[in-house]
Amino acid sequence: MESLFAEHDFLDKSSGNNFADIILPVPIPRMFTYKIPKNLQPQIQIGLRVIVQFGKKKVLTGIIGKVHNKPPQAYEAKPILDILDHQPSVNPLQIRFWVWMAEYYFCHIGEVMFAALPSGLRLSSESKVQLNPNFDAETSKYPLDVREEKILEALEKKDELSYEDCEQILGVKTIHPILKSLVAKEAILIFERVQEKYTPKVETRVRLHPDIVASKAALEAVFEAVQGKPKQESILLKFLRDVPVFQRPQLNEKGVDKATLLEEGDSESSLKTLIKNGVFETFKHVVNRIEEEAAEREASELSSSQQAAFEEIKTHFETKQTVLLHGVTGSGKTEIYIKLIQEVLESGSQVLLLLPEIALTTQIVGRLKQVFGSQMGVYHSKYSDNERVEVWNGVLSGRFSFVVGVRSSIFLPFDSLGMVIVDEEHEPSFKQFDPAPRFHARDAAIMLAYFHQARTLLGSATPSFESYFNATQGKYGYVEITHRFGDASLPEYHLANISADRKKNLLKLDSTRLLREKIQNALENQQQVIIFQNRRGYSPYIQCEDCSWTGQCVQCDVSLTYHQFAEELRCHYCGYKEKIPQACPACGSSQLTTQGMGTERIEESLSLLFPEARLGRMDLDTTRNKYGYQRLLDEFAAGQIDILVGTQMITKGLDFGKVTVVGIWDGDRILNFPDFRAGERAYQQITQVAGRAGRRDIQGQVVIQSRNPDNDLFGKVIRGDYFEFFRQEMIDRKKYYYPPFVKLVKITTRHADAKTAQKAAHALHHQMANIAVKKIVLGPEKGIIVRIKNQYQFESLIKLDKQGTTQAVFKQSLAKIIEELQAVPEFRSVRWIVDVDPS
Ligand code: ADP
Ligand code: ZN
Ligand code: ZN
């Protein structure tokens, strides 16, 4: 990774530089070079927002990405028109990270910027002007001139104006000096996307008038005045109960939220009277959307094996930037993280902890919050944009020195990271598929840490082979914990033979006798059960028994998925949906049956097999809203659910003491992953699900149902022989050229016309043959899904030699080739999607 990164002169702030490269919010491949006028040179800094002319007419806001002395060769540089900020809104380390990401993941830096900035802070290609809500013309220190007033008047009528609108209103050619002056006078805000702009949350609060707090006599007078007016008296008493100002006068300052004061049915008009009479006053208060929670507990005492691991990690960090912590499920990795985080925070540096999907790991977030309280920020994927901006600003202001977040939290404005921890580093969901940048958050995090001179800790019970390989090569430090915390033992595995049971008539509703017995036993002992069904490659669909008709998406070449709950057929690729037909649209038969086994069907089967058990289901459908997941978890934790059926979601970090049985409904489906990572993924998935069982004193039981119980992979998982498994897989990967021995790049060629798509894919293939680096090019082949959203796709897979400058040379040449192909009239609307390190 390092070799790819050529040192840029990012940090060069010395004046006397004549050119700046600007990151613009437009779909162009690179930064644009502008001239720095002499008068602006002393203020120029990386990360500042500037106004520039783009093309003939457009005026845009961009961010300074680089300053240097090299004039562009292909065009005459235009001057920067103006600087917008006193302080950079993005720090140089962030820019450096963006540049790396655009280069490495083969995308435009504008795309990285778009992904990195929450939309409340984003620049838009249509820069807009709005009134500053805090501006008051009457009290402002700065007088406005006629033209400025004209703009403000226009803004009062219309919420937002574009630069062009402003130019028209005043009949001038260059509007920016006027807008700049208005910004300086705090009269307007610009360059935010108005429809998504950040709005602070404001509440109205009530407090006693300061004169009353100042003297006891005044209060007595007030009580006298409200005598015989029970409504007013009630409000006054309620206030004094909530805010005991006479014990602690300083409490009055903060007052109480007006809505809270009135929530017990007190009358608003009585409160108004009290305000009018000078008893109370109201004021506006900006509240944090993200609540403050104080720390509640100390970190746990580490067990001796945890302590040993903790010390080992620190020793490795003396010589290695990255350490892999390989600890079996339930070994207590979180507690080790806590100790490390505490040390880093005490040294004054920041910490980022990445989790696969935070909504899905509320348990770990809760545990961390108890220890770190309000200095910990949480960056959720289900957060609103306003909440994200608040975390962003919290990192900037130092309110959050520690952030727990999903993959996009690598873009937060950290300026002094000391450590980045990636928990469950093997998780495929760390990779972003769409849109660009198609980054892998674990790999990007390692790079981010490198830029900050920080350390990276990767944690997993089932490390990715890439990371494990790096550990065996000595590139990463390696620390292992082989037992669970406390007395908990690892679970016992059983293979249940579906075919054999079917022959003997023991299979009931797709469940084997063994699985039924284990579930029954758990239920009788008031224990809980988790049933897992792999979602990938699976979708229930409807089929006609007479003519085998199945529902197809009208835009994509895929079968529509059956959604029992909504009584619909849906396309999982484009969202197309239709009602379930009453009769077969092809032959008119009414014999339509459901095929495939979804979590819904399993839930149904279990309810027939165990009518007395309370069932819960956790999948995309039941957790779509923000609290669905949390509610199910709470119910399960409270023992209101006996059997929880779920997809991948239930494997992630759940820690429930009463779960003793885990059933894997269709073990074979886990093996059928159409990819060189099939074995690795299967190993990880089975071990992770199994890891939910028996996490306290009773040993867990794991039942894997399969038609091929003799498959060697099951044996390896059951023996827990990770290293042996890894060793054998490496032999194959080396022989057939797969990662970690090569770098993969996948290129998808897309077009609405199948012939054009194919032709373009072949043209690309021929051109790539001329790139003089060590490589293997496979394809182009039809995509796994041939047509998606009415676009045909062809895929090429390139395997690159890992040595030297191979990747950099390849990517540079590829960029040129794509640019040239795009200039061919026939290929103008062809799209090429480049995915580096696809997964
Ligand atoms: P992992 O993430 O490695 O699977 P966890 O961090 O979830 O494991 O720990 C498993 C369980 O053991 C949790 O319930 C946790 O609270 C408990 N635990 C782990 N270490 C300690 C410790 N040092 N003191 C008290 N409880 C611990
Ligand atoms: Zn579709
Ligand atoms: Zn039919």
UniProtKB/TrEMBL annotation:
PROSITE patterns, per database record: HELICASE_ATP_BIND_1, HELICASE_CTER
Ranges annotated as spanning the membrane: none
Cofactor dependency: Zn(2+)
UniProt cofactor note: Binds 2 zinc ions per subunit.
Enzyme Commission number(s) of this protein: 5.6.2.4
Binding site for Zn(2+) 2: C553, C556, C571, C574
Helicase ATP-binding domain ranges (all copies): 314-481
Family: Belongs to the helicase family. PriA subfamily.
Statement: the UniProt record of this protein carries the keyword Phosphoprotein: no
A GO biological process held by the record: DNA replication, synthesis of primer
Segments forming domain Helicase C-terminal: 579-746
One term under GO cellular component: primosome complex
Recorded name of the encoding gene: priA
Molecular function terms, GO-annotated: 3'-5' DNA helicase activity; ATP binding; ATP hydrolysis activity; DNA binding; zinc ion binding
Pfam family of the protein (one): DEAD
Subunit structure: Component of the replication restart primosome.
Amino-acid positions noted as binding Zn(2+) 1 in the UniProt annotation, renumbered to this chain: C544, C547, C584, C587
Lineage: Bacteria, Pseudomonadati, Bacteroidota, Cytophagia, Cytophagales
NCBIfam families according to UniProt: priA
Catalytic activity: ATP + H2O = ADP + phosphate + H(+); Couples ATP hydrolysis with the unwinding of duplex DNA by translocating in the 3'-5' direction
Name of this protein: Replication restart protein PriA
Broad EC category: isomerase
General function of this protein: Initiates the restart of stalled replication forks, which reloads the replicative helicase on sites other than the origin of replication. Recognizes and binds to abandoned replication forks and remodels them to uncover a helicase loading site. Promotes assembly of the primosome at these replication forks.
Alphabetical UniProt keywords: ATP-binding, DNA replication, DNA-binding, Helicase, Hydrolase, Isomerase, Metal-binding, Nucleotide-binding, Primosome, Zinc
Entry keyword Nucleotide-binding: yes
InterPro entries for the chain: DEAD/DEAH_box_helicase_dom, Helicase_ATP-bd, Helicase_C-like, P-loop_NTPase, PriA, PriA_3primeBD, PriA_3primeBD_sf, PriA_C
